[in-house]
Amino acid sequence: MVFCKGCRTAWFDDGDVTDKGDSELFSSLRKKHPSRVCSQPVEMEAQTVSGIKSRYDPSEGFVCLNSEQKWKKCDDYKVMFTCSGQFCSECRTRWFDYDNPSGNGDYEVLSELLAIYPREICAQPLAIEAKTVSGTPASNTSDKLLIYDATYGFACVNADQCSRSCDDYKVRFTCPADFCQVSEECRTQWLSGDTPSAEGDVESISQLLKTFPGQVCRNPISIEAQTTYGISAKHTGDTYLSYDGTFGFVCINSEQKGGRKCQDYRVMLTCPSDFCQGCRTRWFDLDDPTGRGDYETLRQLQIIHPTQVCSQPVAIEAMTTTGTPALQTGDVLQVYDATHGFACVNAEQPGGRRCHDYKVRFTCPLAFCSASNLTT
Question: What residues does 343 pair with on adjacent strands?
Answer without folding.
Answer: 295, 335
